[in-house]
Amino acid sequence: MGKLLPTPALKRDDSLNVKDNRTGKEYTVQVTHNSIPATFFKGIRAPAGPNDRPEDETERGLRVADKGFLNTAVIESSITYIDGDNGVLRYRYVRVYVTVATHPEAYRRGYPIEQLAARSSFLEVSYLLIYGALPSGSQLSHFTSEVLLHGPIHSDAEGFFRSFRYDAHPMAMLTSAFSYLGSYYGEANPSLQGQDLFTKAAKGDATALQNMDRQIFRMIGKATTLAAMAYRIRQGRDFVVPPTGMSYTESFLYQLDHLSPTDQLSGLQSYKPHPVLAKALDILFILHADHEMNASSTTVLQTGSSLPDPFSAVAAGCASLYGPLHGGANEAVIRMLLSIGSPKNVPAFLEAVKKREKVLSGFGHRVYKTSDPRSFIIRKVADEVFAVTGRDPLLDTAMALHDAALKDEYFVSRKLAPNVDFWSGLIYRAMGFPMDFFPVLFVVPRVVGWVAHWRQMMLSPSGVKIWRPRQVYVGPSTRDYVPLEERKGAAQVGIGMEPSVIEHSGMTKRRKLAEASDKVRSKL
Ligand code: CMC
């Protein structure tokens, strides 16, 4: 397992020729792992043409424009491999340099998500993602005990959670909670300790490596604690200390649902979550643990690239994940199904989607173009959960929507299939979680993927380069400042060209009226 096979003797010219028709010059670039460095284009320069503006910087080299990162590889990684065209997801893909003809099995070196979901556990998969191999028994028990040992949090944190408004979204609490958590650990802050605090681990500094792993244990261990606190504050319940002797997901369910020592089910630690629900959550956590360069892991790396403490980077990841196009989609799916109301309304809803009046949440994916392999596993988990919780009536609408969309030319031609979020919300709902808690249930396992990527970046032998992309500037060229009294009329016309006129609250109106009546009185 994981052994690199020798480079094949087969020779091929792995390069690309580019001709710049503006100058007639030809350039050659090496192709490595079927990619070329974007900086290659910077060497392709031409004199400014008749249509070029000075801001195009034509003489300073060609830029690569990729709005939305449709085809830009931002990092070399060996954590997760996705083959979107074939619906494949594997954790810890090992690149093997052989030809398919001689070793057809050689390209199948990652652990298929189906096997991990069926046979592994969330913390074992976490170990795999972070450290690169399935652990031995003693490695797993060391990692498990470190993670669970780091579950409890300083009692000060209770005041932090209580400072939120009664109706605060749990994601607002969790996002700020990770940042808040970082404030406890000055030893993990490169701004305080020196900017090579973590990166020197790549040069073999064992203390730096230990420091990094300590923060990783903390973040995974406390993810459930913070999430449970965000939940309990909304329920008006006191916080509980994480239990001992339970798995990661059992402990999470315990922290969410344990009531009090006087509660019949919760007597001290005798409260045990239902095994089917704990197992289902464990599988869901495995499926959500990592997904290579998605929006939130990219955000974690982008933030981490300027070398803040890792808690800040994870907080940034939470903010990115929360959006309805990413981890907020599970919440959006349920809101959508509720708005559709019943299977008979599905055709009208799909027509509205096709007219772009509505969004079909839980369908489509930037990478998967045939199917999302996680969605098949999750369908099975859903049945197991429904068998103990009872069937959610929304499932009929979901099934009708699913079946109709998969037969409809509009969705088929755009290769839109259900993604993991189409089903996960239904499971969370059946398990009795409030809708706005669904993205939190995505964040908790994804912390593992984020820290695995962050650690990999810190350990990069070539060091960490700040992620500072370029832009294509299309705004005005130089113009002279005009004094206010010489400016005539509206400066610009068009959507978004000036601050909006907004409605003020009743209180502001009353204050304005009071001020106005004051002025009237002073004139008398
Ligand atoms: N409903 C209707 N049309 C869609 C959808 C959808 N959910 N998704 C994509 N399309 C259309 C899109 O309008 C475009 O059509 P056209 O070519 O006619 O303009 C075409 O399909 C290609 O889509 P795209 O916008 O280029 O796709 P993208 O890669 O930029 O966006 C996505 C990917 C996931 C943001 C998008 O599919 C989407 O908004 N889906 C709904 C939200 C959702 O379920 N997100 C969870 C993703 S999976 C979990 C995760 O990783 O977080």
Automatic annotation (TrEMBL):
Record keywords, A-Z: Transferase, Tricarboxylic acid cycle
InterPro entries: Citrate_synth-like_lrg_a-sub (IPR016142), Citrate_synth-like_sm_a-sub (IPR016143), Citrate_synthase (IPR002020), Citrate_synthase_AS (IPR019810), Citrate_synthase_bac-typ (IPR024176), Citrate_synthase_sf (IPR036969)
Organism domain of life: Eukaryota
Coiled coil: none
BP GO terms, sorted: tricarboxylic acid cycle
Annotated family: Belongs to the citrate synthase family.
Protein name as catalogued: Citrate synthase
Organism from which the protein derives: Rhizopogon vesiculosus
